[in-house]
Structure formats: C-alpha cells, structure tokens
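tokens incoming
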C-alpha cells in the first residue's frame, strides 16, 4: 500500500487576509450553507493549541457534476454534497450522528449533543481541513490577525521545473474552481518571489538505522510528508531518546538497539500514515477515513517515547 519513496508537489505563498471563523449554536437548529466547491473535512483535536472538551469529526465530501456518491464503506461520519451547487446542512441536538448523508439533493443533516458543560457556554468551535477537488487540494492557515498562508498540493507528473517568473500564475491556475475564500485569496497572489514551490517526499529507511557507530535519525531515516504535522516532532523525539540512552550506563550495542526498539514502529506509523492521507487526497476512495487516522495518530503520539 505504501511506497518507501513517494513524491507530491506543493505550492505555497503568503496572502494578507484575516482568517474567518465559524461557530454553531445548538440552542436551536441551524442551517450552515456550503458554497460550490467547498468540499471539506473537519478535524478537531485536543492538545497542540486545540480546544478542550468533546470533539467530533465529520467529513464533508464533494461530488463532481454528473457523478453519483458512493455511500458504501466509511464510518458513518460523512456527508456528500454537490461541488456545483448549494447544500444546506441542518444541525439539531442529540448524540453525534449523521441523519442524512446525501446532500447532493440540496439538504443534509447531522446532530451534536448540547455543548453546555455547566458554565453556560453554548457554542461549538468548527475546525476545517483543506478544500479539495479531484487531483489536489487547497487550504489556508492563519498566521496573524491580518495574514495567512495559502497552499495547494497537486500531483505533478514528471516532477516538472517551473520558471520562477511564472510561479504566481501557476499557483493561481491551480486554485481555479475552488469556492469559499480561495478566489479572493488567489487574486492576491501576484508576487512570484512570495511563492514557494517544492516537491513533497517521503522516505522510510529499513531497519536498522545504524551501521557500526553511525546512526541515522530524523529525516535521514524517516522523512515524511506534512499531512500529519509530525515531521519535526519525530526528529525531536529521536534526539530525546538518543540523549536518554547515551546518558545511561549502556553499551554501544544496547544504545543502538534500544533506540530502534523505541523509535522504529512509531516513526513508521507517522511516515506511512502521512503518505496514506496524501494518497486519499489525490485519489479518494469510499473507505478513506481521514478523521479516524488522525485520531489514531493523536493516540500514538500521546504514548510515552
């Protein structure tokens, strides 16, 4: 399923626009509207700056024109919407579940429990993943109150080279067809020097990662794509574990083997999980479970190293 060396391509730039936030109050049914092109998947987490309290994951999957939604597989936390129209998604109170997954007819529905934990707060926070379309995705991440960066990830057959003087135009072309804030952000991409284009590569070296007294750590052993946001974190964990082992009264062989025992499977999961998310984004399948895999990642990294 996973290849040891996988390439994607990404284009990213900075744009001066404040990020929008969305909240839903469950004191009465609400009807948020998805505009054309806004195929999104929602992922909320605790830790790493996320809010505390109960979290629910809902994938909203865009269906291209003249295509039918495949309702088989999956875990039930999905709603299908048309990419070329408007879908009204109704929210009511109750245990978390999808009541009407077929939004291609114009309406869909799901329910969430009352968020009031006794302090009188009746609002949900909505965390949204990147907007997607067949063959790629686009998204944006707030940086300050008046700036953010926007990204686009597409398969680029042959890993082509682009003239630096054309990067802004190439970026705008890949953002065509998206809805939401993307058209407004795209219009601001005019400075070629502010556009960064790089291939995304994943590499997992077979065990062991050492020979003699030389040990590979970090990206030299397990370079990963950014889909799980764990690349730098895993390199830091490598250093922490290696430091602990070197500070103990162990032989060289015990240090090296102890490092592999503590690091290999954890890094392998992050590496392959990130690649899997990238594959799902490029070639969606009915059983793609972004939220489930991200939750599994959170459970894994919460374990002691």
């Amino acid at each position: 399923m996973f290849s040891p060396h996988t390439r994607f391509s990404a284009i990213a730039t900075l744009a001066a626009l404040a990020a929008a936030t969305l909240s839903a109050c469950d004191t009465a049914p609400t009807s948020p509207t998805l505009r054309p092109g806004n195929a999104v998947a929602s992922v909320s987490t605790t830790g790493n700056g996320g809010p505390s309290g109960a979290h629910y994951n809902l994938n909203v999957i865009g269906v291209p024109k003249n295509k039918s939604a495949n309702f088989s597989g999956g875990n039930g936390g999905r709603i299908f919407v048309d990419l070329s129209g408007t879908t009204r998604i109704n929210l009511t109170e109750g245990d978390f579940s999808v009541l009407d997954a077929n939004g291609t007819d114009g309406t869909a529905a799901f329910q969430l429990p009352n968020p009031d934990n006794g302090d009188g707060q009746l609002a949900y926070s909505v965390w949204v993943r990147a907007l997607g379309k067949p063959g790629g995705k686009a998204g944006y991440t707030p940086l300050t109150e008046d700036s953010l960066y926007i990204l686009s990830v597409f398969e680029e057959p042959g890993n082509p080279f682009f003239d630096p003087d054309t990067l802004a135009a190439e970026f705008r072309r890949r953002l065509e067809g998206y809805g939401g804030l993307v058209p407004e952000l795209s219009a601001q991409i005019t400075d070629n020097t502010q556009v960064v284009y790089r291939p995304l590569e994943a590499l997992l070296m077979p065990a062991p990662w050492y020979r003699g007294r030389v040990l590979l750590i970090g990206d030299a052993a397990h370079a990963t794509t950014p889909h799980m946001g764990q690349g730098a974190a895993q390199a830091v964990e490598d250093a922490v574990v290696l430091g602990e082992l070197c500070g103990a009264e162990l032989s060289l062989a015990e240090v090296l083997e102890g490092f592999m025992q503590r690091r290999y499977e954890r890094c392998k999961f992050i590496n392959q999980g990130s690649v899997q998310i990238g594959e799902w984004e490029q070639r969606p399948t009915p059983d793609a479970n972004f939220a489930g895999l991200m939750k599994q990642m959170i459970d894994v990294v919460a374990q002691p190293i």
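note: The two ends are 26 Å apart (CA to CA).
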